[in-house]
Amino acid sequence: MLEIKQLHKSYAIGDSSLHVLKGIDLSVAQGEMVAIMGSSGSGKSTLLNIIGMLDEADGGDYILDQVPIKNLTEKKAAIYRNKFLGFIFQSFNLINYKNALENVALPLYYQGLKRKERQEKARFHLEKVGLLDWETHLPSELSGGQKQRVAIARALASDPKLILADEPTGALDTTTSYDIMAFLQQLNDEGKTILIVTHEEDIAAMCKRIVRLRDGVIMEDKKVTQVRAESHV
Amino acid sequence: MFDIDLWREIFQSINKNRTRSLLSGFTVTFAILLFTILFGLANGLNNTFAEAFVDDAANAMFIRSGTTTKAYKGMQAGRRIQFKNEDYQYIKTDFDDNVEFITSRIYKNVAASFRNEKNNYSLRAVHPDHQYLEKTKVYQGRYINQRDMEMKTKVIVIGKLVKEDLFLKVDPLGKYVNLSGIPYKVVGVFADDGGDDEERLLYMPLSTAQQVYGNNDYVDQINITYKPELDFNQAIDFGLDLEKKLKERFLVATNDQRAVRIFNMAMQNKGINQMTSVLGILILIIGMGTLIAGIVGISNIMIFIVKERSKEIGIRKALGASPKSIVSIILVESIFITTIAGYFGLLLGVGILEWVGPSLKTYFITNPSVSTSLVVSATLTLIGAGTLAGYLPAKKASKIKPIVALRDD
Questions:
Q1: CB–CB contact A81 B312 (8 Å)
Q2: Cβ proximity of A168 and A87 under 8 Å
Q3: Closest Cα in chain B to A76
Q4: Of A186, A217, B4, B42, which sees the most CB atoms within 10 A?
Q5: Helix (H) / strand (E) containing A165
């Protein structure tokens, strides 16, 4: 599903350069739910950005679903992102002047679907996250947990192979966090591959595998027994 | 090519950010408003100049005589110069190359009566060419012709207002008008763009007047038009040459300003022509300046908008928006706002011109308006301007890195 070999990334800071990723090897199979942990500066966000094709590696290989991701033009990257990936962000990143339904339908717009089809699909996914009644509401009229669920519906809308979540519960209280995690677990149960960047141990424990990064290298990569989020609610 | 979804996106963005859109549109509206009004006023000014000279042919020269103010070649000052038929002949033959039409004029005031109606009028005794010089429009009957000149017939051509005064509802053609005791047959009625004064006139063959009034060959004034193929400078040179020759002919000092005077329309027109073209250039510069200021203004706001929307653009890109779709969103929005706002400014400007136009007549501005072709080209310019204004910001937007835009801060 996802194959990363000897991934390197440095950022230029003035005259010197900061070596953020120092040879990452990671492979994720279909249906996995992986937590990427690390303190700030460990390189976990950079890794996620590269996996999300929002950033490019300096060296190494990255193969996603048998497609080598390298030297992408902006256009190609846009197409791949749309086709392969669903993003969930810490701050939700919904478009504030679009209502819930329109937000969910946006990736479908970029897929070139007809309006009717888009709305149909978007409704289906909104229903899945339990927010169909809120379809005409703007993000400002939704709670944090609802916003994140809209964001999840949006990430699911284009039926991606891989869901990338960057601190998905970072802006939520514990109860809502577990609620969201329960939902992500459910998605995983249905076969979605999910990658979560987090620094919270309890969130990581709800995944099936934990990858710990420190100073740009993988310190630890172990499978864990998944803690079901429902048990906490 | 019409992408309804793109438009839906743009309308949503404009609608949800009304203040911003209004502000950016306002700059353009104002610029176009100023441009339209300036252009209209300049047009009005031009119209005034054009109208001021519709009375007479634009290439006319009026040759008048007076008394000498300087002693010259043994002649004393204070001598009266009198033009005669021979002077008319002299100009007609010697300056044939440059003269298009030529006529002499004698002025008289006459008391005219027809049946019970009476009035006093100015009479001009002229050659047939006078019709072209004065742009007289004969709409009934005919003008004075060469035969009248030879036969010294007692005929007159009357102005439209004379006809209204004397004839009321009677057809004047063939009727006889009594001028100080002598009956003259009316052969034509004319109109003139020069206004009421020019239509309250009588025309009579020059030869007839010379015989009736004094039995001499005197003329008061000689009017000519120069050949239209002469440009302003050639016409001015011709006028000066003519003046010099006439002064020699009448033994008048070359620096005598009163004895022989030539009023040359070419001089007038050259000045006006220069003034209007300078005015036109000025208006164009100011108008272009305002327009450029408008473009810069909207470009500025678009840059700000892109900055403000950079997060949204980042999200769109993360969701799979191609750089092209980002460019078209920003560009089309810019073009749309510019065009609508600019068109609004244009309509507003035209409306204001229509509204205040009539009251500007006293300020030498006649019928200030903008032409359809200007409206069309202004619209095209606006679309161009919108593209120009939106291009850089759109390019900038398409280069936004989602990773930077989405960074939480």
A1: no
A2: no
A3: B322
A4: B42
A5: strand A162-166
